[in-house]
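Final report, Chapter 2: Outcomes

The project's central promise was a pipeline that accepts a single protein chain and returns its three-dimensional structure in a standardized token representation, suitable for archiving and comparison. That pipeline is now operational. To close this chapter, we reproduce one record exactly as it appears in the project archive, with the input sequence first and the structure output second.
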Amino acid sequence: MRRFIFDDAHDSFRDSVSRFFQKEVTPHTQRWREQGFVDREIYRKAGEQGYLLLWAEERFGGAGIDDFRYDQIVIEENWRHGDAGLYFQLHSNLVAPYIGGLGTETQKQRWLPDVIAGNKILAVAMTEPAAGSDLAGMKASAQDCGDHWLLNGSKTYISNGQLADLIIVAARTVPDQKYGIGLFVVEAGMAGFQRGRRLKKMGMAAQDTSELFFDNVKVPKENVLGDPAKGFGYLAQFLAKERLVCAIDGCALAQTAFDLTLDFVQQRKAFGKPVGTFQNSRFALAGMRTQIDVVQSFIDQCVLQANAGQLSAELAAEAKLAATELAGGIADQCVQLHGGAGYMDEYRISRLYTDARAMRIFAGSSEIMKEIIGRGLGLDERKLK
């Protein structure tokens, strides 16, 4: 289905981004999966092309493009020609906005130029062993010691955990308040900060996911983002955009899986004719095409809502729920249509299948998305008692 949200400028940008991924990313994906992380150099190369933090102001080295469709294109082309383990979207669209939206002028001047250039890689540390989707249950703490904060605790499942130079850490600052949380920028090399093991995962093998430990880390006051007691509200504020990014990921994965499978069934033969000519294959692909078009149209409208500053938490939850459930379902059907080949790691569809599984968990599980949507309908037990 033709997507009417893009104009000629977007199409031209997509062409250049596509060439970048095919030249600089595609040849390295197998090696990155084997080593368990991407090369730092790819961030610098993307920075040179202006593909990181497209929204950032020109005075910091950014492109100053306040149009999320351009970010959407970068994400989609990475799925088409790159690898799930290359997390430009985390760097540019999930973590950097905390600095851009909450940082002081001094903090922006200090960090954004290197982040935009790809010289410094970002991560955000929220999840703990006993606190995932329920962020209010986190145990990591920060104590105000006058000229600095003393940070203690651990985080797990942190994307870019090994590579990151700047990590935004959420920690409890008001012990007796459920939502008394602050956001602290921990820099690589700070005393007491240690990276744990790189975690092995079902999918996204090239995505560096790690444990992080903080033992009496002295965080300067100038490394605090916003009010140190209002971090929970800040996290909620930025989660809608994060979930929209996840939705774009889900649709892009589904489209990529579909394209691979359509090509496969046209080439692979059984009983003397292409697999795609069998009614089962035609019906399966027809159903998938319809599902993808429907969800993609919805996600595209959500992107326009985000551009207008009107993306609600409930709508973002709907987008993530629909797109990530779609990704899992499409990937599963595509593996089936590949037959035995679909179970082999040498075929990309196998990797997309395992990559898709995490989408229904991170940034809030599908069950949490349903809770958010349901409460938005007025079905909140606190209000109905």
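Archive annotation: The beta strands are 122-125, 141-144, 148-159, 166-172, 181-187, 193-198, 209-220, 224-225, 269-270, 273-274.
This record, like all others produced under the grant, will remain available to the consortium after the project formally closes.
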